[in-house]
Amino acid sequence: MNLLENIREGLRSIISNRLRTILTSLIIAIGITSLVGILTAIDGLQSSVDNSFAGLGANTFDIEGPQDYRRFGGRAEKRVPPIDYHQAMTFKRRFQQGENVSVYASVTGSAQVKYASKKTNPNIQLIGVDDSYLAIKAMKLQSGRNFSLTDLENSLNVTVIGSEVASTLFDRNQNPLNKEINVLGGKYKVIGVLEKKGGFSGGDDDRLVLVPLENARAMAANRTLTFNITGSVPNMKDAETAVEEARGLMRQIRRDALGRPDTFEIRRADELAKDFENITGYLRIGGFGIGFITLLGASIALMNIMMVSVTERTREIGIRKSLGATPQRIREQFLIEAIVICIMGGLGGIVLGIGIGNLISTVVSQGNGNFVVPWFWMAVGILVCVAVGLFSGIYPAYKASRLDPIDALRYE
Question: Where are the membrane-spanning stretches (predicted)?
Fold first, then answer.
């Protein structure tokens, strides 16, 4: 009995036991689905985040006030004051690439906006911005216009609103432009509506109300606002130089003493993307571990089924041995059966895993991610299936090859 005939015989055995083959393949399919599905979902989320940061650009950086208490020399320092309006505007004026700098401040993240009898939930972000904010933050207008210098210099009551705010306050056939909405007790004319962004941010960028910076300062009344700065450079190769220049200038403006830590934080857009990529790396390890444990259970179940198959076919093994089949050929037949069953289950599991993984990433990213076909994880899945088949089939195959033909022929 040659190898080719052995393969045919193994396939015939699989076909003759369809129900058992299907159920066994389903066990493997569930394991591969968990493995490929989890890893596909993670890749889909990574794609969504990459798309979000691609819009912002890797050549941007944010300067923010201190987030917590700082330690120096083993002692906790007093909380340093946030970046104020004077410091932010001084930075924008003195930075060499000041035309690529935006200064903005968040007034509140729980504003309620009204129009006529309609009103939003109290979860609207109210932000005071300048005329560079939309361009540097890569926000596109669905309709209307950006803030002009006249709007900013004269502190006009005009606003640019997010898509969710517009859909909540206005009917589908109603044009929001030039309508007056009520923002924290003041009337503001809508001059622009932002495109829907959604995505990994959870829709926060769609719940925005932007007003001129001076208006935001007036809205804050006696509260102290924290002003943030976002800068960009034309070329990626200049990003590192620009960040260091910005750090030096900001230390000078903030009067940070030599040898003391910065009283502000600078974060580059690509650093945020790298941070998330590191997190997804750990998630992949965890996902692979969960899938591996599931497959280990499936392989033990397959081994048990193959052992039952050997017992059921003891007489058949005795007949083949009496006709000249060698132990090697007997082992090959059972290994081929185990591997084919695993590959059948693996192919079904890969299809299910890709579908489920992309569905999860689409739901989490609110439709912002692309459909991901994880070719690498598909290849890994097939290799794992072959490995599981070998692991599950090698002992039953060895046991079958060691049967004595005389005893096997007597088996009932």
Answer: 21-42, 282-305, 334-356, 376-398
Using alpha carbons only, how large is the chain's radius of gyration in Å? Answer: 32
Q: The pTM is what?
A: 0.57
What is the number of domains present in the chain? 2
88 plus 33 within the same structural domain: no
- Whether residue 231 is found in the same domain as residue 351: no
Percent of residues in the chain assigned helix, strand, coil, to nearest 5: 60, 15, 25
Same domain, 332 and 376: yes
Residues 244, 362 share a domain: no
Across the chain, how many H-helices and E-strands are there? 13, 14
Alpha carbons within 13 A on the beta-carbon side of 153: 3
DSSP string, 284-324: HHHHHHHHHHHHHHHHHHHHHHHHHHHHHTHHHHHHHHHTT
**Same-domain pairing of 351 and 337:** yes
For 172-209, write each residue's pLDDT tens digit.
889 999 999 999 889 999 999 999 876 545 557 789 99
